[in-house]
Specification:
The complex is a heterodimer of chains A (358) and B (879). With 358 residues, chain A is an alpha/beta fold. Chain A is built from 16 helices and ten strands. Chain A is globular. The termini of chain A are far apart. In chain A, 43% of the residues are buried. By secondary structure, chain B is an alpha+beta fold. In chain B, the strands form six sheets. In chain B, strands 2-1-5-4-3 form a five-stranded antiparallel sheet, sandwiched between helices. In chain B, β25, α23 and β26 form a beta-alpha-beta unit. In chain B, α14 packs antiparallel against α15 and α16 crosses α18. Chain B starts with a helix and ends with a helix. In chain B, 30% of the residues are buried. The mean pLDDT of chain B is 82. Classes of the chains: A alpha/beta (358), B alpha+beta (879). At the A-B interface, α4, α5 and α16 of A face α2, α3 and β2 of B.
């Protein structure tokens, strides 16, 4: 039987279209709203996003940044325009407020804001009228119990490492976090604002630099260097450490005895947003107690949503790496704003360290 | 002066002078070109550097403009709030500058400065060593802020003074529309500064080097050094010297000279770049000495050319002239030293080869007309006899190889030796003898070898007189005749032995002939007394005389037996015997008792090897041998003494067996030693001869004892040796070949009473009537039924008619068939007929043949009742 010459190309086209119906359907309709969400990568439960999109007939376009500086660059490049919801650390929000990029928020506009434990607002009172806390956590040390000799319980174990850890340490690429930890290792407060203490912290960071394989955020995947064993120790967010632990049970996490940086991520709505209401709905949706609990379980970070704790299993709530005990929390500090000359110093010095390491 | 040297002296100026002239012309041309090239290099390199720097300044200025127009930089510069400026914007600006810097790695830094000149942000972290520079730059920028210019490209010297930076400065003016009116001029916000180290270009510029040590140097308009090479093989300029020199004397684009740092430089300058003067420097010495290398090369090349030409000429001369002449010289030397067969290679047609050809021709002619020494030596040394040439003062002049091997002296030792010294003093030839006699031919003399050995030689000598001067010399020949002498001696010994053998053989023939008859006669004398005695009562007075007759007969039979032994006709060796048993048997025998009773003062001691080897032989003869030796020993000790009989196992090597026929191998040694009177050496040679005795004949011996011993030893393939010293004693050594077989077990002998017959029929065949009767008597006495016939034919006839149980056949019967033939006939009629064979003669080949055919035993005459009875009974009892 003779097959017509056009048969096979047609067959291929039909097959392609039949295999990708979602693609065909994914073409946005002209009425569909787009909510632009500037956030860290892998920092939201995709199911929640889908549910919200379904519920509100919109699309959430996530734009990922890898460092705080990158997020600032994105915003500076557009002068705060083009983004609806931004997830940011508290310290950056001070600058955004001065640039008048942020829309005020209250319990009326976001009803579920009432479930938030008030202490998280009290932590940064200047910005409490513009923000909704998203998650909170600590920065500590993750290490391979099977590879690292001896116990790890101090920042000094990370900054003054044993000789066999040369090029086997990974550090966060963030000047604030690095200086904070180095100051803690020296026994100072992480927010010390005198030049002398900061110079000492810089020297400590410089001495650690030959042991550091990379200054970057770690990948939450089996290819992560701590999982593969290329790195044996690293400065890691607590939730990230718990996810890595699922890939490699030998990865342990510790909040150093000197104390750590207690971070809180906030959600803000940009003043230049064209979908302000949808943005508020999105924040409100995320803080439905059940959703907040799902988020906390998915990302393995503590939620500031007090009511959501009722939906969390005791194993999650009692996990000291997610919810540190009071003694640990007592030594932890949140980042505070620093004088400009210290900031200028830190920016210049940290660029030197990272540049030298390349 | 050598020929070679003369030729060289002639040629050398002809080569050297033209080549040197040529070298000088080449040198001058190269020098001029080289200097011109160097100056061209200085100019070109300098201009290339200028163009490169200008292009760099333009490119960098364009980059600055691009950077100044970015919104981020503008945003940063107009933000006054320090928290925002450093908390938010500075990291982003730093990243921007860093990105810019990364795309232009030849830029050293890109930095942003406050209006007062202080640095605010830098693309890279400034190194500590540059802090001073940063401060200087701050001052410089502060000054520039007063200037109406908005941008500037200049050069600033670094603190190390070896290099400087190219500084491209751009003033930044941004208007903040929230605070500044659009009609007002934009305020001055700060500086954007790009720094490029001049060394960045340096590496590019250095690719075009000037001469060997030439280099570029950058100076500012005041003459300060901005950049100069840092590598060590270039002389470092001192700033002050250069400043002084350049400001005073240097004109752009022209070659001038300066002294800097104590060294003279040639210099060119270019003002192509604003604020920058590029100097091209070359040590003047290099320019002046530009030709030096060329000169060296030219001189070197010229020298090599001279050497090569010279070497070629030398090699040619050596190859074609010197070496052939040297060969000719060698040829002449060879011929003059006597080698007249020496030839030269004369291939080719040049003069020297023709000379060689003539040389060869000369040698050939010489070879034909003379006899070479080689030829003579060949003759001399191929001779088997020693040949000596003796001078007229009796000294040896020339010897051949045979002389050396004969005398064991070497040639040098022999030359100059007196001829007489070679011979034993008694018969040394004197020179007078030689001169007196014209020739001496084959005179036997004793030559003394170097090791003292004396050998017999035949000495011949003849005179030789020189044709030229009449000098006399003697040609002597020496022939070794020691082997001939030995052969003669051996021949004499062999003859003596033959004589002895013949004597013994004659004796044997005599004894054999007599023995047969005597034994037949003795049969009656031995056997009848036995028969009579067996019938007599023990108290009968006839018993003693009869016994005496019998014993006399037996003695006579023993003597006959000795004679047979001596003639080697009677020994039948076929038993394996242990000599110890024979000795013990003798010591217990009546003969031994009798001997001891005769010699009561003689003591016999024995020392027998318990594990003595066996031998194959005749016990009877061995017994007799021992008896004779012991008996002789006892008689040699009239005053008493001790006889030692010793046996031992021994092994004979070649060396012991040289004088006899003993094969090397295991032997049994029997020694019989006495302490008697000994034997004189004269007697010792004759003791084994028959009938030789020192004793009184008829008293104790027959003179056959030792001869029997000798015969027995010979029959047993053994060897006997005697050592004797007079008045001290004699010792006999008897060697018997050992065998490794067991001795034959002797069957127990039954008493005669048990050997009686039972009326069996026995036929006696004997040609002698007495013998037939005697045998019949004995057989009847023994209880058999005897019949007798007188010959072989009768016996066959009888047997044919009357079968008998046994036949006793005499071996030798005349006339008619002998015993063997008779038996052959009989077994044709009655196969398996039992029979015995009897003879007075000893056992011989025909007896052996008869035994092989089936005859039971051989009975020696004279018969004794016992032997006959035992043989008959044994045969009849066979199944």
């Amino acid at each position: 039987m003779r097959i017509p010459n056009t048969f096979f190309p047609l067959l291929v086209i039909i097959l392609v279209f039949s295999l990708y119906p979602p693609y065909c359907n994914a073409q946005p309709s002209p009425d569909e709203k787009h909510l632009v969400f500037l956030t860290w990568s892998d920092y939201i439960d995709p199911n929640l996003v889908k549910e919200f999109e379904t519920a509100y007939q919109c699309r959430i376009k996530q734009i990922y940044y890898e460092t705080d500086e990158q997020k600032d660059e994105f915003l500076l490049a557009t002068n705060g325009k083009g983004f609806d919801v931004v997830l940011s650390s508290g310290i950056s929000i001070y600058h955004y407020l001065k640039r008048k990029w942020v829309l005020p928020l209250n319990n009326e506009s976001i009803p579920n804001r009432k479930h938030i434990d008030p202490r998280w607002f009290e932590a940064r009172p200047q910005i409490s009228g513009y923000t909704v806390p998203y998650l909170w956590g600590t920065v500590g040390i993750a290490y391979r119990k099977d590879l690292v000799k001896g116990s790890v319980d101090s920042w000094r174990d990370l900054f003054l490492p044993a000789e066999d850890l040369r090029k086997k340490i990974i550090m966060i690429k963030d000047s604030r976090a690095l200086f904070f930890a180095a100051l803690k290792a020296l026994g100072y407060s992480g927010n010390r604002n005198d030049l002398k203490a900061n110079i000492r912290a810089y020297q400590l960071l410089l001495s650690q630099q030959p042991f550091v394989k990379a200054y970057s955020y770690i990948k939450l995947s089996p290819e992560c260097c701590i999982v593969t064993g290329q790195c044996e120790m690293g400065m890691v967010f607590n939730g990230d450490a718990l996810i890595l632990n699922e890939y490699e049970p030998n990865i342990h996490f510790t909040v150093p005895k000197e104390g750590a940086n207690l971070w809180i991520d906030y959600l803000i709505v940009m003043r230049a947003s064209e979908h302000r209401e949808l943005a508020k709905h999105f924040i409100n949706f995320l803080h439905k107690p059940r959703n907040a609990a799902r988020l906390s379980l998915f990302l393995k970070y503590a939620t500031p949503n007090k009511t959501a704790e009722a939906f969390l299993p005791p194993g999650h709530l009692n996990n000291p790496f997610i919810y540190p005990d009071k003694t640990t929390l007592k030594n932890c500090e949140i980042l505070k704003e620093l004088p400009p000359h210290i900031l200028r110093y830190r920016n210049n010095e940290i660029s030197h360290i990272i540049h030298q390491g390349k | 002066m050598k020929l070679q040297t003369r030729i060289i002296a002639l040629i050398l100026p002809l080569i050297v002078i033209p080549l040197c002239g040529l070298g000088w012309i080449v040198y001058k041309r190269f020098e001029t070109n080289y200097q011109y090239n160097l100056i061209q290099q200085m100019d070109t390199t300098m201009h290339q550097a200028g163009v490169q720097i200008l292009s760099e300044i333009q490119s960098a200025s364009a980059d600055m403009d691009l950077l100044a127009n970015t919104a981020l930089l503008k945003n940063f510069m107009i933000t006054k709030n320090p928290n925002e400026r450093y908390g938010l914007l500075q990291p982003a600006i730093m990243k921007l500058l860093a990105c810019y810097h990364n795309t232009h790695p030849d830029y050293e830094t890109i930095s942003i400065h406050f209006p007062n000149g202080e640095m605010e942000v830098c693309s890279t972290f400034p190194s500590r060593s540059n802090v001073v520079k940063t401060q200087d730059r701050g001052k410089f920028l502060k000054n520039f802020s007063q200037s109406p210019d908005t941008s500037l490209a200049t050069f600033i010297q670094r603190p190390d003074a070896y290099t400087s930076d190219l500084l491209i400065v751009k003033k930044l003016f941004y208007r903040d529309y929230e605070t500044n009116s659009a009609f007002e001029p934009a305020p001055f916000n700060g500086f954007l500064v790009l720094t490029v180290n001049l060394n960045t270009f340096w590496y590019e510029i250095q690719r075009n080097r000037i001469g060997k040590n030439g280099f570029l140097c950058f100076v500012d308009t005041s003459g300060n050094i901005l950049s100069q090479p840092q590598y060590t093989d270039v002389p470092r300029l001192l700033p002050d010297d250069l400043k002084k020199a350049t400001t005073q004397t240097v004109t752009t684009g022209k070659l001038s000279g300066i002294i800097c740092n104590g060294k003279r430089f040639s210099l060119m300058a270019s003002d192509g770049v604003p604020d920058l003067r590029i100097l091209s420097l070359l040590p003047t010495s290099e320019l002046l000495e530009a030709g030096r290398d060329i000169a060296l090369i030219v001189i070197g090349t010229t020298l090599i050319a001279i050497i090569l030409t010279f070497t070629t000429i030398l090699t040619g001369m050596k190859l074609f002239i010197v070496t052939p002449i040297q060969r000719l010289i060698n040829g002449f030397r060879e011929v003059s030293s006597g080698n007249i067969h020496y030839h030269l290679n004369a291939r080719g047609k040049n003069e020297i080869n023709r000379l060689a050809h003539e040389f060869n021709h000369m040698v050939d002619t010489l070879d034909k007309v003379t006899v070479s020494r080689d030829y003579l030596d060949g003759i001399l040394h191929s001779m088997n006899d020693g040949l000596l040439v003796i001078s007229n003062n009796a000294r040896i002049e020339t010897v051949n190889a045979a002389s050396c091997s004969l005398t064991k002296f070497n040639t040098l030792q022999l030359q100059g030796m007196l001829i007489g010294d070679l011979f034993s003093s008694s018969d040394a030839p004197s020179i007078e003898d030689l001169i007196e006699q014209d020739s001496i031919s084959n005179v036997e003399k004793n030559l003394v070898k170097r090791n003292g050995e004396i050998i017999p030689v035949l000495f011949s000598c003849s005179k030789m007189t020189s044709r030229y001067d009449g000098t006399k010399r003697f040609i002597c020949a020496i022939r070794d005749i020691s082997r001939i002498k030995d052969a003669e001696k051996e021949k004499a010994e062999l003859e003596a032995r033959l004589h002895h053998s013949k004597k013994m053989e004659a004796l044997g023939t005599l004894a054999g002939g007599v023995a047969h008859d005597l034994n037949n006669i003795l049969s009656g004398i031995v056997s009848y007394p036995q028969l009579l005695l067996s019938g007599l009562e023990k108290t009968s007075p006839l018993r003693k005389p009869l016994s005496t007759i019998q014993k006399s007969g037996e003695k006579a039979a023993a003597i006959v037996h000795d004679l047979l032994t001596l003639a080697r006709r009677g020994v039948d060796i076929r038993e394996t015997v242990n000599l110890n048993s024979v000795i013990l048997e003798y010591l217990l025998s009546p003969e031994s008792h009798k001997l001891r009773s005769f010699h009561p003062r003689v003591k016999i001691e024995k020392q027998l090897e318990p594990a003595l080897y066996n031998l194959t032989g005749s016990p009877v003869h061995l017994f007799k041998t021992i008896m004779n030796l012991v008996s002789n020993a006892a008689e040699a000790m009239p005053d008493g003494g001790t006889i030692w009989i010793t046996t031992e196992n021994t092994y004979i090597e070649n060396s012991i067996a040289d004088n006899n026929r003993l094969e090397p191998g295991p032997y049994i040694l029997l020694r019989v030693k006495d302490t008697g009177i000994g034997i004189s050496s004269e007697d010792l040679e004759r003791i084994f001869e028959p009938f030789y005795t020192k004793k009184k004949m008829g008293r104790s011996g027959t003179g056959l004892g030792m001869a029997v011993v000798w015969g027995t030893i010979c029959d047993h393939n053994g060897y006997i040796d005697v050592k004797s010293r007079q008045e001290q004693g004699t010792e006999f050594f008897l060697y018997f070949p050992a065998v490794f077989q067991k001795t034959n077990a002797m069957p127990p002998q039954r008493p005669v009473e048990n050997l009686k017959g039972n009326g069996e029929h026995i036929l006696i065949v004997d040609d002698l009537k007495e013998q037939r009767e005697l045998a019949g008597e004995i057989l009847s006495h023994l209880g058999y039924a005897p019949f007798s016939v007188a010959g072989g034919d009768e016996a066959v006839e009888f047997i044919n008619q009357h079968p008998v149980d046994l036949m006793i056949i005499d071996m030798i019967m005349a006339p008619g068939m002998d015993g063997l033939d008779t038996y052959r006939k009989v077994i044709e009629i009655r196969p398996g007929q039992k029979a015995l064979i009897a003879s007075g003669y000893s056992q011989n080949d025909r007896v052996k043949e008869a035994l092989r055919l089936g005859i039971g035993a051989y009975v020696q005459k004279p018969y004794t009742i016992k032997t006959l009875a035992r043989a008959i009974r044994s045969e009849l009892d066979k199944t």
